[in-house]
Amino acid sequence: MVVDLIGSCRAFVSVSEAGTFTAGAAIARIPQPVASRRIAALEGHFGERLFDRSTRRARLTPFGRDMLPSAKRLVALADAMEHDARRAKLRPLRLAMPDICATRELAELDAAARALDVFLEFRQAAPRERAELVRVQEVRAALTVVPAEEGTWKVPLGLAGGGGPRAGALHLETLRAGRSGGAPRRVWIQPEDDVPHIRDRLFRLRDSVGLRPAQVSVAESLTAAAAAVFGSDDLLLCSTAQAAELGLAWRPIGEIRLARGYEITAGLGEDAQRIRARLWSDIARCLGAEETT
């Protein structure tokens, strides 16, 4: 017969402390017949009586007195393990996120995770830093940039500027100097998109349509890029969600399709799988990604 050693020891300790099977069962929060069966199973397992049942009170036998300290240690260890397990489940999973994610989107992602008993702690960082944070174990997982066709999440990019919304795509060739008679309009690339599969493709397009090198530039920060756009006719390479947040009119690029791609990088594969499986749509909303799998 398989003995529930921890449950039986818990009943044994409770009855020994209470002095009766009824009171001991109440302490252990189990019915009295269950306490009796568990103690009987423990006695059968050891081949010795733990209690002298010839009296109304539950009096320990000499064998029972010898076994009680070990039973108490086992129960205490089991309780400590349960406590540690509860703490481990509540320990935050540190997740490195793009620093473009707004507070509200991060809060909604956090709330969605908590509903699934997943507790996140965010660390926002630039693209190059996020994978490094995983490597040095400062975070357990990170949303890292990859080419869009390789990513779990895909965020289409276009050009956003001031003024009212316009229909159709915006072609970079229309920004060539001299066509409008004013200062050349510039396209600003924010640090989140300063990665080869986005930046270099846009630079090649810039050169092929005859724009000046300075007309497509990488900004020091998203704030700096947005400020340049607010104060001029310049354009920001961004997602539709970012354009809406900044109050800018967004249009796709006519000559090329660009998109951010994101994947989960984690020190443990099970962390990556858990985040991807349970929080896919919530991360998509946080990133402004397409809602497709």
Automatic annotation (TrEMBL):
Domain HTH lysR-type, residue spans: 10-61
Keywords (A to Z) from UniProt: DNA-binding, Transcription, Transcription regulation
InterPro entries recorded: LysR_HTH_N (IPR000847), WH-like_DNA-bd_sf (IPR036388), WH_DNA-bd_sf (IPR036390)
The keyword Transcription belongs to this UniProt entry's keyword annotation: yes
A Gene Ontology molecular function term of the record: transcription cis-regulatory region binding
Entry keyword annotation includes Transcription regulation: yes
Pfam annotation, one family: HTH_1
PANTHER family cross-referenced by the UniProt entry: HTH-TYPE TRANSCRIPTIONAL REGULATOR, HTH-TYPE TRANSCRIPTIONAL REGULATOR GLTR
Homology family: Belongs to the LysR transcriptional regulatory family.
Full protein name: LysR family transcriptional regulator
Organism whose genome encodes this protein: Amycolatopsis thailandensis
Lineage, top ranks: Bacteria, Bacillati, Actinomycetota, Actinomycetes, Pseudonocardiales
